[in-house]
From TrEMBL:
The keyword Glycoprotein does not apply. SUPFAM superfamilies: MFS general substrate transporter (SSF103473). This is Uncharacterized protein. GO terms for molecular function: dipeptide transmembrane transporter activity. It is found in: Membrane. GO terms for cellular component: plasma membrane. It comes from Saxophila tyrrhenica.
Amino acid sequence: MAMVGMDNAGDIAAAEVKGAGLPTPSLEKQVAIEHQKEPFPAPSARSSSIDDDEVRKPTQEQLDTLRRVPAKIPWIAFTVAFVELCERFAYYGTTAVMINFIQQPLPDGSTTGSDPRPNGQPGALNYGQRASTGASLFNRFWAYFIPLIGGYLADAKWGRLKTIYISIGVAMVGHVIIIVAAIPSVISNPDGALACFFVGLLFFATGVGGFKPNISPLFAEQLSERAMHVITLKSGEEVIVDPALTTQRMFMYFYFFINCGSIVGQVSMVYAERYVGFWLSFFLPTLMFMFCPLILLAFHKRYNLREPTDSVFGKFLLLTKHACAEGGYKHIGKATFWERVKPSVVSVKPSWMTFDDAWVDEVARGVKACSVFLFYPLWWLAYNQIDNNLVSQAATMSLHGVPNDLLNNMNPLGIIIMIPIIDNIVYPAMRKAKIRFTPLRRMCASFFVACSAMIWAAVIQYYIYNTSPCGYHVGSADCEYVSSINVWAQTGSYVLVGLSEILGSITGLEYAYTKAPANMRSLVFGLYQFTSALSAALGQAFVGLAADPLLIWNYGAVAIIAFCTGIAFYFIFTRPWDKYEEEMNMLKESEYKGHNLGGNSEKKVEETPEQQQRAPAKEIPV
């Protein structure tokens, strides 16, 4: 896409590459001296996938003074992004009309659930807001619980691409069953239709769960450059090509494709629901979903693929147990917790310790990332409001011919507009001004923006109650009137949630990829996706507030939680860890591929002279 331009992309592509590498270990030493603590184990070595004869190492002076830019994103990565677009079209196109399908009654004279009148309300099963909210939360919980399994299977057994193919097949079964639930003859029996819908939803969410933790790392792994290096632009300016910025940009535009699929799927399906019926709004996403396997098969041989590595997760558990043994748990929170169980340090190695020091460094970094994700369920709690309660809120406002489930498209539309602006204007300006808007700072900011979105929703709900003839029961089935407030007043909530996603959700994907061990990326992505499942389960506690007259309390409580979580996130993660972001990104990628180092069962891990002389790590708490 033309929009996916980069800072000086043409210059970078045309620049003459002269030399390479990464900062010397003195950079780490200087950081450690400056801060007098070492919360992350010192990396065993620096990573570089670029030949030292072909590119230039940045010196310490260049690191401090030169502008940093991302590299060009390889075109093959965008085929994976388009697959994600198709899948998101199918997912959001289906779930966008689910609330109305379950909550609202079948309109008079309709057999398909359609209602094309100016203020008409499509519906089918008439089970109410709590039932529809519960169904939405169940779908989100199951779709984001399964990534734990899908991620493990991809890393250890099947590989990413095979896992994606199988997941697509399972999801397709779910799509077909959901279509059946919306056939007019089935809708006429609400209990039977609901049962059929839930069976389809189970298959559908299972397939989504296997797909999600694998498509993101498959996209990012199409980038081959891993080392920081200096190039000279056509203008004569020297810049540093920073892989961390490239990864950040890749996930920004991956999310751009996600939201393109989301908005097209949602907008088209709410009109299909309104003017034709639910069967069409479930059928069209299924057709779009069929493009996923076709595109992957067409480009299969061009993808960079990582082979599954058998029992790597088992090795992680054994390593953690070994680190905790014999009083090792006392070192939790100190650099020595992982340092003392590196193969180069352990005098008598267990038979399962067939990896290298670099893999232990990657594991330590991955554990840090996963601890950051513990706060994400509380962020998703605010995000989830746009999928259920805000859709129901719109139904109590003056629609003026706009479907009540159309407004939530302001969220992906806002994201599509904001991503190019932030990536091409805001972030480069901040880098030029030497403002470090690191992943941990972006994550922290996302909680406060989400809080603002919920405050907006609470204020709108207050005025709905005060402008409707039905007062605090405007959403009840007995109320024939709605508030005089125009439904477009909701726009602020959706746009703010979208900005919060750019800061929080995109950065979460980036963080999962850059901090996870290379042979455990799908699993770590699965853990990241699982935070949404935890949020859906937590959201069940708020279902009691998801009805009149308590909705102001619902949005207000979520706003308070987001604000308090942002404060806690800053003091627990952002403030103490932020200064070590670059140090973590430059850890060497391990050569460990599975049962043993490099795949040879007879190969032993040998210590280098540098490793043999290594001084014990400082026992300083994080």
